[in-house]
Amino acid sequence: MKIKIINTSRHPLPGYETDSSAGMDIRANIDQPVRLEPLERKVIKTGLFLELPLGYEAQIRPRSGLAAKHGISVLNTPGTIDADYRGEIGVILVNLSQEAFVVEDGERIAQMVIARHERASWVEVEELSQTSRGSGGFGSTGTR
């Protein structure tokens, strides 16, 4: 699949790190380092602009290494970039650790997954079909 992209950053285009990767790493495009204090969140710009085909979205997800090593995550995970959005991609990073973290220019801050999606139309009914689970939720299917 080919996707139109404008790269105003100083960094390479997002890319897959391995042949089997689902997500492409995206990098911070900032003029100076950004310090994230514990529990603080900030939008980090990327210098990337996309034109996605209708029926697709770009999902912005955390990088597992940043999350495991430093407690850095993407706040609205996954963040969605819609096919009609033409603005710069910004990533909402949050520091869930107890120590400050500094985001450097060019640092891989998130991953982007391109995904097909469907549009739903509602059918209002008076009742839903029965299942063995029923209305059980939040751990009702067991602990194994």
Description of the molecule:
Pfam families: dUTPase. There is one protein chain. This protein is mainly beta and 144 residues long. It has a domain at 4-8 and 23-116: Deoxyuridine 5'-Triphosphate Nucleotidohydrolase, Chain A (Distorted Sandwich). It is 5% helix and 35% strand. The protein is built from 1 helix and 11 strands, in the order E-E-E-E-E-E-H-E-E-E-E-E. It has one helix at 64-70, and strands at 4-7, 24-27, 34-36, 41-45, 48-51, 56-61, 72-74, 79-81, 90-95, 101-103, 108-116. It has a 4-stranded antiparallel beta sheet with strand order 2-11-6-8, with no helix packed on it. A 3-stranded antiparallel beta sheet has the order 4-9-7. A two-stranded antiparallel ribbon has the order 1-5. The mean pLDDT is 95.
Task: Provide tags for this entry.
11 strands; 1 helix; 4-stranded antiparallel beta sheet; mainly beta; Deoxyuridine 5'-Triphosphate Nucleotidohydrolase, Chain A; metal-binding; dUTPase; dUTPase-like
Number of strands: 11
The count of helical stretches stands at 1
Give helix % range: under 10%
What spatial order of strands do you see in the largest sheet?
A: 2-11-6-8
Task: Tell me about the largest β-sheet.
Answer: 4 strands, antiparallel
SSE-based structural type: mainly beta
- Beta-strand level of the residues, as a percent range? 25-35%
**CATH architectural name of the domain at 4-8 and 23-116:** Distorted Sandwich
Reading off the top of the CATH hierarchy, the class of the domain at 4-8 and 23-116 is best stated as: Mainly Beta
Find the CATH topology of the domain at 4-8 and 23-116: Deoxyuridine 5'-Triphosphate Nucleotidohydrolase, Chain A
* Integer-rounded radius of gyration: 19 Å
